[in-house]
Known about the structure:
The chain has helices at 2-9, 12-27, 33-50, 58-82, 95-98; strands at residues 103-111, 114-119, 122-127, 136-142, 146-151. The chain is an alpha+beta fold. It has a 5-stranded mixed β-barrel.
Amino acid sequence: MIQRIVTELGPWAWWVLGIVLLILEVLLPGVFLVWIGIAAIVTGVLSLLLWQEAYWVWQAQWVVFAVLSLASALIGRRLVYSHGRGSDQPHLNQRGQSLIGRTAVLEQPIAEGRGRIRLDDTMWSVQGPDLPVGARVRVTSSNGRDLTVEEA
């Protein structure tokens, strides 16, 4: 059946396959089928140019399609992931990191390197130099649970 379709459509079979893959990419987004669809269309272009050649048998076409699919997928992956995906809120789910640079007043003194501050509605454990209650501190880093502070 497939051989009959390829024989009847000739080089246009690759174009049909490419368009079907591109339509599937729209229906099932994932940015993968687009690269295989592009490879099929390029194979179709080559088939239009080489259809009458003796060496352009269906096995050669499939090998070219496979190589082009792999190459376009690798190039496409590089294109998609090479752009720095900056965010307007880079610390959205990293609350401790978003507090770096903020200042607060000590709620509990820093004694032996540990104390507590209140930022917004949360009490945070802090590490830093020994300071009395009421001292103003600036957050310099976060390890996820504790904040490191210095005198502001």
